[in-house]
Amino acid sequence: WSASPEQSSGLTWVTEPQKVGTLSGEQAVIVFGAGVIGEATVHACRMVGIPVECFLDDRITGPLLGLPVITTKELKGEASFYITSPNPDDMVSPLRKLGYTDWHSCG
After folding, report:
1. Residue 67 and residue 90: Cα distance in Å, rounded?
2. CA distance 46 to 20
3. Residues near 86 by Cβ (< 8 Å), separated by ≥ 6?
4. Residue 38: CB partners within 8 Å, gap ≥ 6?
5. Which of 7, 20, 36 is nearest to 106 (CA)?
6. Taking the chain (107 residues) in consecutive chunks of 10 residues, what is each chunk's mean pLDDT?
7. Which of 1, 20, 81, 90 makes the best surface tag, with the fewest CB within 10 Å?
C-alpha cells in the first residue's frame, strides 16, 4: 500500500490501511473484486478491524479468504463498497445502474 488519497469521478481513492479504517467505522463493507487487489484490501481491513461482509465479483467464484463471493445480481439492500480495480469505472458503472452510491476505490 502507498499513501496518496485522491478524488476522481466522485470516488475516494484509498491506498493505505489507515485510510481504509477511516472510511467505514463499524459498518461491514463489500469488497468489489476478488482478485489480488481485493484480497489485499480484505487483509488491510482485517488489520484495522473493518468487518468485510463478502466479495463481489461476476467472474470469480468463492469462497475466498473465508468469505462468500456474490455477484451483482445477488446484491440486496444498502451496502458500502471498496472498489479494487485500477480502472474503477468498470466496477462503478454496474453499481450506479443498481442505485448504489457508497463506494471507495482501493485499486
Report:
1. 23
2. 10
3. 37, 107
4. 31, 32, 55, 57, 64, 84
5. 20
6. 36 45 64 95 93 95 95 92 90 93 85
7. 90
Give the full edge-to-edge strand order of the sheet including 29-32.
Answer: 7-8, 11-13, 103-105, 80-83, 29-32, 52-56, 69-70
> What angle, rounded to 10 degrees, do the helices at 17-24 and 36-48 form?
70
Angle (nearest 5°) at CA 64 between 60 and 6 = 75
Q: Rounded distance, CA 45 to CA 99, Å?
A: 25
Strand blocks (E) in the chain: 7-8, 11-13, 29-32, 52-56, 69-70, 80-83, 103-105
Task: Using a pLDDT cut of 70, give the percent of the chain over it.
Answer: 74
